[in-house]
Amino acid sequence: MKEHDNGKLIAIVEDDPDVAKIIEQVLADFGFRTVWCRSASDLLRRLRTLAPELCIIDLGLPDMDGIEAMQRVRSQTPCGIMILTGRAHVSDRVMGLEMGADDYMLKPFEPRELVARVRSILRRRENVADNPPQQLACFAGWQFNLANYTLLGPGGAEQVLSTAEAELLKVFVHNPNRILQREKLMGSRDVSPSDRAIDVRISRLRRKLEPDAQSPSLIKTVYGAGYLFLSAVDWSGEENKAPQK
């Protein structure tokens, strides 16, 4: 017996009508509603009136590269994003995840795996919405607001984070002074020994947090084991408050 998903709306951005039809049918079989967009511009137009829970985006769109389309979607809606593409090159995968995709899946796909990954993204997002964690993490003079991914430096200047960098920092502040394996830092995504996406993300985050990214003091590499966030984290919001006179 199939478990149904209460009519959650999924936007499919795919220029191949045969592939789009397969995706629509698979999702419909499990209780999802779908809207098919043939191009990125079609999706962006529909987002003015629709609020999908998730967008499934192909990278090879006729009017816009899928990575750019994903960035445009991120600026318009907080929905989840899955990349579903035939591009198997590791650089495309790294770029997609770095720019904030929740998952990256290759064509041809197995229908049940597609549904499982869609559900995984939606479940993670629902858990965050239903069980909001403490929102302000203070460490080493920094303030990280998990509600809106705002990061303020010791001098009060804002440091802009990509969604991928913010999600990585969120894992670190929830697990200070613990060695974290690369699999843990990648969340639910499968990580192969050759997948260097997390290392690229670590490098970018270091450049924003560390005075000397070549000699990091906050995010330490533990060779053969993973990474260590070497800082106490205060969730009361008191760490960076000025002392009372």
Features:
Arc Repressor Mutant, subunit A, four-stranded antiparallel beta sheet, 8 helices, elongated, single chain, 36% helix, disordered C terminus, 245 residues, alpha/beta, Rossmann fold, 2 domains
Characterize this entry briefly.
The chain has 245 residues and is of the alpha/beta class.
Please tell me about this protein's structure:
This protein is α/β, with parallel strands linked by helices. It has two domains: 9-130, Response regulator (Rossmann fold), CATH 3.40.50; 136-229, Orthogonal Bundle (Arc Repressor Mutant, subunit A), CATH 1.10.10. It is built from eight helices and twelve strands. It has helices spanning 17-29, 40-46, 66-76, 90-98, 111-130, 163-174, 182-185, 197-209; strands at residues 9-13, 33-37, 54-57, 80-85, 103-106, 136-139, 142-145, 150-152, 158-159, 179-180, 219-222, 226-229. It has a five-stranded parallel beta sheet, with helices on both faces. The chain has a four-stranded antiparallel beta sheet with strand order 6-7-8-9, with no helix packed on it. The chain has a three-stranded antiparallel beta sheet with strand order 10-12-11. Strand 4 (80-85), helix 4 and strand 5 form a beta-alpha-beta unit. Helix 4 (90-98) packs across helix 8 (197-209). The N and C termini lie far apart (66 Å). Residues 188-194 and 239-245 have low confidence and may be disordered.
